[in-house]
Amino acid sequence: MRPVYYLLVCLFFLFCNKAEKENEFLPEKKEKTVSIPKHPKFNSYWNKGKAEITSYALTQSRYGEIHQGTAINIFVTEQFLPKKQVKADTQNKTNISILKLNSTKKFVTGIYPYSLMTSTFSPIVGSQKAIKISFSSQEWCGNTFIQLNNRAQFEIDFRSYFEKNADKELLLKKNTLENELWNLLRINPKKLPIGNMDIIPSFEFLALNHQKIKAYKAKAILKEDGDFMMYSVDYPTLKREVTIKATKEFPFIIESWTETTTKNGKKLTTKATRIKTILTAYWNKNGVTDTEERKSLGM
Questions:
Q1: Which residues contact 26 (CB under 8 A, 6 or more apart)?
Q2: Lowest-pLDDT choice from 12-16, 168-172, 183-187, 249-253
Q3: DSSP letters spanning 106-124
Q4: Is the distance from CB of 233 to CB of 178 less than 8 angstroms?
């Protein structure tokens, strides 16, 4: 009986290992809700081989005060490998089209500077959640890094120099991600979730405020305000509200945003206001003479 027993055990582990590899990336099952397509004008604006770069004047809340800085949002479409979850180097039938947002912030607190960047990769078609998100923070105390990979579950890798936020790896249920909402707005505002739901807040907020990485109860509202639309997400337990103001008409350019938090009875608001938007293939513009285009952004 013993040889048969060992054979069964070996077959069991072989099957489990195979299943684990096959589940390395699993697209989400079809949701009960209707999958909303991209905006009809999406291709004419986004598929020109250029990125949309928008500069913002930033007033950033940190350490109980407001600090001056700049923010840049870079939206661009790319071909993406869903299994490896990286940008594709070549055309391949397994590639999918994604909209990527690289959001950067730079500001100074007292004597030392902060540099923040969040990258969010969202499928353009279908109802699948963001495939990948990464966040990094650099300041004189040290580095913080978070990466989410959308596989069978949300796989999160967290690295930090803080004891309270020591290195960790997490698995989370696939709830709505605050970071992906910015891309959904640009693809088609009708994709934005509305009402009461569980949302995983932005990685920037969670990391800088040492909050547990999980979904929190939230309420999302979309309303019109003249030529603009206002999309707000309120987290009652976190005492935090985020509002994005964008043009009501395509291509839904983000005009400004605010993030209001209350801590120890003190309310502070981070705000970014648009300076200028340009379309450019910035990856080809790395020469000394190309700095003129950078100046056009008011940087």
A1: 151, 152
A2: 12-16
A3: EEEETTEEEEEEEEEEEES
A4: yes
Domain boundaries, the chain: 54-286
Residues 55 and 274: beta-carbon distance below 8 Å:
yes
Element (H, E) at 278: strand 266-280
106, 240, 258, 293 from 278: Cα distances, Å: 20, 31, 22, 9
Residue whose structure tokens are 């209707």: 34
pLDDT at 34: 57
Cis, bond preceding 251 (omega within 30 deg of 0): yes
> Residue 14's pLDDT band (boundaries 50, 70, 90)?
very low
Buried b / exposed e over 280-295, threshold 16 CB at 10 Å, is bebeeeeeeeeeeeee
Place of tokens 């285009």: 293
Calpha distance 242→213 (Å, rounded): 18
Phi/psi for 265 (5° steps) reads: 80, 0
- DSSP assignment of 114-179 equals EEEEEEEEEESSSSPPPSEEEEEEEETTEEEEEEEEESSSEEEEEEES-STT--EEEEE---EEHH
pTM tops 0.90, yes or no = no
Mean pLDDT of the chain: 89
Hey, how many other C-beta atoms are within 10 angstroms of the C-beta on 265?
6
DSSP 3-state of 210: coil
Q: What percent of the chain has pLDDT over 90?
A: 74
Within 10 A of 106 (CB to CB), how many other CB atoms are there?
17
As a whole number of angstroms, the distance between CA 202 and CA 162 comes to 19
- Radius of gyration for the chain, computed over Cα atoms and rounded to the nearest angstrom: 21
Q: Give the β-pairing of 195-200 and 176-177.
A: parallel
